[in-house]
Amino acid sequence: MADSQQGVDVPGVVNGNNSDSREHVYLQETFYILSKKNSVFRVRLTSKGLSLIKETDGSSKEQTILLRDIVGSKCMRSKRRRPGAGSCVCSSLVRPDQLKVVDENSGDLDENDISAYLYIYAYILKHSRRTQKRERTTITLRFRSYDKYEDNNKEAQKWRATLKCLIGGHPVTYTPPINEKKLLVLLNPKSGTGKARELFQTKVAPILQEAEVPYDLHVTKYAQYAREFVRTRNIYSWRGIVAVGGDGVLFEVLNGMFERLDWQQALSEVPLAIVPCGSGNGLAKTICHQFNEPYIQQNLIGLSMALARGKTTPLDVVRIETKTKIMFSFLTVGWGLVSDIDIESERIRALGGQRFALYALARILGLRKYKGVVSYARIKDLSNLPKPKMPVTLSHSVSQDGALDSPDAETYIDCDDRNSDLYSNAVHTRRQRVDSWHSVNSRRSAFFSTRGSEYHSVTSDNSEMRSPIHVCMHGPASHLPSLMSQLPSHWVKEEGEFIMVHVAYESYIGEDFLFAPQSQMSDGIMWMLIIKAGISRSQLLSFLLNADQGLHAELNTEYIKMVPVSAFRIVPEGTEGKLTVDGELVEYGPIQAEIFPNIVNLIVPDTQ
Q1: Which of 198, 228, 330, 377 is the most exposed place for a label (fewest CB within 10 A)?
Q2: pLDDT given for residue 252 in this prediction
């Protein structure tokens, strides 16, 4: 029979969940602990997870590592021991601190040890009174039922392949599923306190390696780099696009996708993801909040596991129109106090999230008022909300003054391929998917590689991009009148002086700012917070101090209220002020927006 590695404290590293008698058992084996003569572990790989039954002196205790907490596994062999190391090769079982394993193809193998070791990597969700967090666990199963390593390894590989099928949701076979597509990772090294690259390499990359998920990592060189990247590349060669940094990186990626002629197919086939390394991180906090995943600053375990598992959920987007631009948003539109704090605190972004608190005090002391008109289409019945259908055919968005070019005039050029045939084919822009585009995975521009993953140099000449000759925004066509036209009569109109108007479509707009507690990621609702002039500074300070609790959402007073809307228009008076979209500064002037449900597929944690 096979035996388990001595010293692995299985009861201490698994969840105390009872096994479901109806679960399907795929594999089972008995593992002995030789140091405890009367103890064995009966291990079963089931549809629920890894079940470990400890039997000691007639009593048994069963615990399970849930499948959703396991990211991957690997088969290993023991490493050759150096002469004089004090280990006897004929000992029945080495101590845990003496066991060294290496890859199967290593040249430093211990040929005397015929055992095959299966390492199973899991991140167990631990609960305490106040918090919950994930703890890394490695379960080591030692297979040595046979006299030859090849036979033991075959058994270990069978477990590994079955586990990989279960994790990926594939039909169970003894051949591990192969997905040759990599993740595309676009990383902004200046996000937050400037530690995005370090956080990715130390927190995210190890989990992706354990899960055997390869990736291409590209470091952004300048503003709008990520936007140009997804607009001009054959993104179908990747399994998903990951924005590493603040919400601004994903804003670039999202709008780059909508600047593609094949935007609808691209968003349908290529999911997006975010790894929070910025200052705000509103979407990442929302994801963790709604999927019951611990969110600890600079602890990226849960969202890294999501990248490994690849589960997706639909996400609403908001189409925004200004005088000269059309853009798409996933988080907020702001005017007034919160936008002022967000933009003006950029000068001290090295402080991370603390910059918001410092500038909040400054802006309350020097309180500003803004004149204008706010109009909105209020949602009266949240329980019976009609959801707009996604357009069947590709639609071209046109600004109110017709400033954007026709899609027929747009030309795409792949940045890494100088082939003249590609240039001649660029005029065929009516096709929904440009299959002749070439992949940008040029190995000449890679200086870091691990398990098939590539890290592309920020100084490589081969990775320079050339934008389309004409860039225009596509996406679902607007249902609203043009920006300067009269609005429908059923819209609510409020005119006067405002401290702020902030609209959000996610629960959180920052790590500590619970803006819309009722919000869901694909509910077709925008939540508009209106704070009018006349509110006291003490009330504003209380609002900001309690932002992490979302208490403002229940208020409906003379000066402050929260309204569910499906569309809105803000027309500021004058030229002094700030308007933001997803934390990015946009031109000051009239702005209108409407929500489109279920446009984007977003990678989220697996909660099943």
Answers
A1: 198
A2: 96
What burial letters (b/e) apply to 135-172, b meaning 16+ CB within 10 Å? eebebbbbbbebeebeebbebbbbbbbbbbbbbeeeeb
Contact criterion met (CB below 8 Å) for 253 and 226: yes
* Residue written as token pair 């040759």: 180
pLDDT of 553 reads: 81
Q: Which residues contact 271 (CB under 8 A, 6 or more apart)?
A: 240, 241, 310, 312, 600, 601, 602, 603
> How many angstroms separate the CA atoms of 166 and 182, rounded?
20
SS3 (DSSP) at 356: helix
Give the model's pLDDT for residue 168. 86
Is the four-CA dihedral 143, 144, 146, 149 of positive or negative sign?
positive
First to last CA, the chain: 33
pLDDT digits (tens, 9 = 90+) for 123-157: 999 887 778 889 999 998 999 889 999 999 999 99
CB-CB contact of 217 with 160 (8 Å): no
Distances (CA, A) of 412 to 90, 415, 431, 448: 66, 9, 12, 29
Interatomic CA distance for residues 332 and 310, integer angstroms: 26
Q: Are 145 and 1 contacting, i.e. CB atoms less than 8 angstroms apart?
A: yes
pLDDT score of 454: 62
For residue 197, give the H/E element and its range: helix 196-199
What backbone torsions phi and psi does residue 15 show, to the nearest 5 degrees? -75, 150
Q: Which residues contact 386 (CB under 8 A, 6 or more apart)?
A: none
Residue type, 520: Q
Tokens found for residue 293? 């995943």
The CA–CA distances, whole Å, from 54 to 35, 274, 280, 442, 517 equal 14, 40, 46, 51, 44
- What's the pLDDT at 542? 85
DSSP single-letter state for residue 204: I
CA 269/CA 600 separation, integer angstroms? 10
- Shortest CA distance to 298 belongs to which of 164, 201, 221? 201
Cβ–Cβ under 8 Å, residues 355 and 345: yes
3-state SS class at 226:
helix
C-beta separation of 547 from 302 below 8 A: no
**Residues in the chain where the model's pLDDT stays below 70:** 1-21, 33-37, 80-110, 348-356, 384-470, 608
Distance CA 557, CA 529 (A): 12
Domain boundaries, the chain: 3-168, 332-387+478-597
Per DSSP, the chain holds a count of helices (H) and strands (E) of: 12, 27
Alpha-carbon gap, residue 89 to 543, rounded angstroms: 68
Question: Cα–chain-centroid distance for residue 252?
Answer: 15
Q: Classify domain 332-387+478-597 by CATH number.
A: 2.60.200.40
Q: At CA 463, angle to CA 457 and CA 467, rounded to 5?
A: 140
Neighbours of 122 (CB within 10 A): 27
Distance CA 121, CA 207 (A): 9
Query: What pLDDT was estimated at residue 453?
Result: 61
Residue 585 CA to its chain's centroid (Å): 23
- Catalytic hit among 216, 247, 262, 606: 247
Extract the tokens encoding 141.
């199963």
* Whether this model's pTM surpasses 0.85: no
Q: Is 392 left (phi over 0), alpha (psi -120 to 50) or beta?
A: alpha
Q: What is the DSSP letter of 48?
A: S
